[in-house]
Amino acid sequence: xxxxxxxxxxxxxxxxxxxxxxxxxxxxxxxxxxxxxxxxxxxxxxxxxxxxxxxxxxxxxxxxxxxxxxxxxxxxxxxxxxxxxxxxxxxxxxxxxxxxxxxxxxxxxxxxxxxxxxxxxxxx
Length: 124
Hints:
By secondary structure, the chain is of the alpha+beta class. Helices cover 30% and strands 27% of the residues. A 5-stranded mixed beta sheet has the order 3-2-1-5-4. The radius of gyration is 14 Å and the shape is globular.
């Protein structure tokens, strides 16, 4: 099956979501569009200490978007990972000191993951 394409509308929507989450002071440290070959789709991968350990992390994100009036039908597929997740830890180890990662494309081994394709918003 052909790989789903990440298009500008996806990039814009994710940027809107990040702005809302920033305004809600969730301090998102990692935000990356990541292609999952297992699902044959893209996920907006987020990591934040404020979401770590929360059983309700997805609810917190949904609530912030709802309070901001963001339409549910525009919400991208989101995957929330813990800050100590090996993927997040390795992304931060490799790129957190890079001056500007926004817009970077990744296709490489990161920890135990082969990242087939990714678009980076932030890694800090």
